[in-house]
Amino acid sequence: MNFSAASFISKKTLLAVSLFLAGTFALSADPIRYSGSDFLVGETEKALNAAIEKATGEAPESKLRGSISAEKELRVDKAEFALLMLPGGGKNIEEVKNGTWRVFPLAYQVAYVAVASANPLNEITFEQLASIFGNFAKKSAKSWEELGAAEFSPALTPCTGDLSRTNAVTYFQRKVLPNFALRSAVRGLASDENAFKEIINNPGTIAIVGKQIPAGVPIKTLAVADNHENPNATAYSPIFTNVYNNDYPLAIPLYIVYPVKNRQMLKPVLSYLYSQEMANKLAEAGFLPLEPKLREQFQKGIDNIK
């Protein structure tokens, strides 16, 4: 991680940063503007806006209308930073490639494959998932025996959790079912909680959800292998390390993206984004936030901004 020093700092920015570090308010002429994912609308946006106003003395202007829109606004200088869902990590964005923009991970939305704890399977492949959930897939699995669980007799019942709270189910479809839609037999439930109840009541249920499994319930998540192109792909479980290292194939990262020229101005913003309070708000909004030790490392980098 490299938060390099700015070559030019405006008087307004110097005042904002120095007073923030001193624990007082800064009086700035213009508000900080930011754009980003619409999944941050609500309590997450309110908390971030309050923190920015406390640090700068000016309420920010926030436009959370989606990552595509936010990237465009950042490019035409209508935002000082953006919070973007970038499955590819921004590798194809020209400003990222040439070093004009900085990109740092903040949290993740994860599509979990949840089944009953009694289910003998511990891992599953994209091809198997397509056979369960995909309409007109090459194969159509109708029983757990066809998936390698010969002794597991409950009826195979696919369902999905909340389609609106996170992008998990939509991302699952795009990655696992790129050429076809969900089968008509796939039940769309109103919430992830309802999906968990369905698994408990019917152990043959397999659900795609965007929420971590609650503690103390007889449910587990399966490791997933993306074998669409590599038949021998390794299956990875959705633990944080695998998500962070881009090994678990059904996770979408949320990044903070900003022009290098704005790094001094954004120091208080960055500090709050990697705080425990923000991590809690992100978790409440359906994200998997960075682990504390990793956030501490990012905080040290922020402290070294000059």
Describe this protein's structure.
Helix 6 (168-176) links the parallel strand 7 (157-160) and strand 8 (187-188). The protein is 32% helix and 19% strand. The protein has helices at 11-21, 43-56, 67-75, 94-97, 126-133, 168-176, 192-201, 240-244, 267-273, 276-284, 292-303; strands at residues 33-36, 61-63, 81-85, 101-110, 112-116, 123-125, 157-160, 187-188, 205-209, 219-221, 223-225, 251-259, 288-289. The longest helix has 14 residues, at 43-56. By secondary structure, the protein is α/β, with parallel strands linked by helices. Mean pLDDT is 89; it is low at 1-28.
Short description:
32% of the residues lie in helices and 19% in strands. The protein has helices at residues 11-21, 43-56, 67-75, 94-97, 126-133, 168-176, 192-201, 240-244, 267-273, 276-284, 292-303; strands spanning 33-36, 61-63, 81-85, 101-110, 112-116, 123-125, 157-160, 187-188, 205-209, 219-221, 223-225, 251-259, 288-289. The longest helix is centred in the N-terminal third of the chain and has 14 residues, at 43-56.
